[in-house]
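Sharing a chain and its predicted structure for anyone who wants a worked example. Both blocks are below, sequence first, tokens second.
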Amino acid sequence: MTSFAIKTIAACALAAGTLGAFSTAHAHITLEYQVAPANSSYKATFKVGHGCAGSPIRQIVVTLPPGVRGAKPMPKPGWQIEIERQPAAPGAAGEARRISWTARTREDMLPDAYYDEFVLQARLPGQSGALYWPVSQVCEQGRADWTEVPGPGQKLSDLQAPAAYLEILPAEGGGGHQH
């Protein structure tokens, strides 16, 4: 294993531990892995811990941050996937800009008392820094929009309904495996 790979793994573990403790206490939809290298393939696993004041979840909608490319959602039994794409040149498919999972029936909805994950894979932007993933949680009765992004001088912990957060680390070396 290269020294860059070891440093990256160590930085990811440290950041994930720090952010993981913070995010579970303050946000209701978070990413399982909250750090990743720039320009890498990333498995975004959105952790959903509860419904809306006792009401089951019938839909999860993820808005992809700018620069995220090639997004592919993971199917879930009982849930229908819809991909909203950006306009593209004639004859070409545009990049995904929003992905939603919708329960097919009431029995497929996620009850408030249960936890689940919604997953997609995508290529991250080449620049390091913070990346926010707005997520809407639509319930049988009500909804929660986890879409707030900190402004200048504001902390993520100051927000009432923060978007899922990912820290992109600088890409070094360039010798990694690419798809």
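Comments welcome. The first strand starts at residue 29 and ends at 31.
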